[in-house]
Design brief:
By secondary structure, this protein is an alpha/beta fold. Helix content is 40%, strand content 13%. The longest helix has 18 residues.
Length: 402
């Protein structure tokens, strides 16, 4: 009888979501806590139905990109990160303008449309060596350098920059934004427990949820479309995942500038503090993706990285996602270097097998391209017009496969 009651409760929450009612925290907790296979099946079916309501043409997108790790120095030290290095550590590097241009030009030759600039958060505030590097390059801060490199890439190669630059104040973001089609900052988690001793965010400077939400709000004030998301499997409870998704939903309802939510699974790496931590299971990922769709609603773009689940990532399409994120024909995933990008021909075939059409997008989602109000400069607007068709996707004649 108890099992039947739980199942009925889960089904009632699903019906509520399908009726277009906004789910509350308790609803999300019920959905994500159930381990009944029948509930998961019903949850996934409902997530697909919601996604298909907003996208009757059944299209799934991806962005053909180059990855530009502008600097891997950072003022934070997260328990799961291998991207960040100390200034004297093997592999520490800040790209020069010549290096940035060389990679960007090669990416453009290979048909890329996006340049993803990824970098540590204000490393000069922790490392005097970074201040010296910036001075040698002619800049006072890392955000100032990111702005200059975004402009350089856009003007010299035509690639549309998307910068992940950590927490930014208004002046810093205002300098970067005109040269970017969109920007991003992962919320990762809304759990303050993760900042306690032994937690993955203990000792970090910029990972508190209110700081990252503030950056999303700052972007909204400047009219910048933002990507954000959650990182699952770093010690949060299932209920705390729901809290993080609802925090993102709250930003979107208040500010309207969240163009995409990523649900990213933690991968254990041998040189980190969390090298022995268990990774989320495939079922855990499916459940979280489906719950994300029901909480965030049909219109939100939801992404799951295919390279972080090499076998079976196509099942994500059964949970209501509509985007695969950036895939590069040239550069590796520097955040997860052990995880190779999928072959785009195979990605297209698996997407088709699930009943969807794979389409290429720019760093700015098609709906936001069509809206016309998100380009922060004439240069970005002009390049978007050159690249996209009447539906906001990359023009078919410009799409490239392997």
């Amino acid at each position: 009888m108890a099992t039947q009651t739980v199942r009925s409760t889960v089904q009632s929450v699903i019906e509520k979501a399908l009726a277009g009612e906004g789910l509350m925290a308790d609803d999300g907790y019920r959905l994500i806590a159930s381990r009944d296979p029948a509930d998961l099946t019903a949850l996934m079916a409902a997530a697909c139905e919601l996604n298909d309501r907003a996208r009757p043409h059944r299209r799934v997108t991806y962005s053909r990109k180059v990855f530009l790790p502008l600097t891997n120095l950072c003022r934070d030290r997260c328990g799961y990160c291998t991207f960040v290095k100390g200034p004297h550590q093997r592999g520490a590097h800040t790209m020069t303008p010549d290096e940035v241009l060389a990679v960007a030009r090669r990416g453009a030759e290979l048909g890329c449309k996006e340049a993803l600039l990824s970098l540590g958060d204000h490393p000069e505030e922790r490392h005097p060596e970074m201040r010296e590097t910036l001075r040698d390059l002619g800049f006072e801060s890392t955000p100032e350098y990111a702005a200059a490199m975004s402009r350089l890439v856009l003007e010299e190669t035509g690639l549309l920059p998307h910068t992940n630059c950590g927490t930014l104040d208004r002046d810093e973001m205002a300098e970067i934004a005109p040269w970017n089609a969109s920007m991003g900052i992962m919320l990762e988690s809304a759990s303050l427990r993760l900042h306690e001793p032994g937690g993955p965010h203990h000792g970090t400077v910029t990972k508190r949820p209110e700081q990252r939400v503030a950056t999303l709000e700052t972007a909204a004030g400047l009219g910048v479309a933002m990507t954000t998301g959650i990182l699952i499997g770093i010690g949060e409870t299932p209920e705390e995942r729901v809290d993080a998704l609802l925090a993102i939903r709250d930003v979107q309802e208040r500010c309207g500038n969240v163009q995409e939510v990523i649900v990213q699974n933690f991968r254990a790496k041998p040189t980190t503090r969390m090298r022995y931590a268990p990774e989320p299971s495939a079922l855990d990922m499916l459940r979280t993706l489906a719950v994300a769709r029901l909480l965030l609603g049909p219109e939100m773009n939801i992404q799951a990285p295919p390279n972080l689940q090499a076998d079976g990532y196509e099942t994500y399409l059964l949970c209501g996602i509509n985007d695969w994120g950036g895939v590069s024909p040239l550069t590796r995933d520097f955040i997860n270097p052990e995880a190779a990008w999928p072959d785009t021909d195979r990605l297209r075939a698996l997407t088709r097998e699930a009943g969807y059409e794979l389409r290429e997008r720019t760093a700015l989602y098609p709906s936001h391209v069509l809206d016309g109000s998100w380009a922060r400069s004439p240069q970005v607007a002009s390049r978007l017009a050159e690249l996209t068709d009447g539906e906001g996707y990359v023009k078919p004649e410009l799409e490239r496969w392997n």
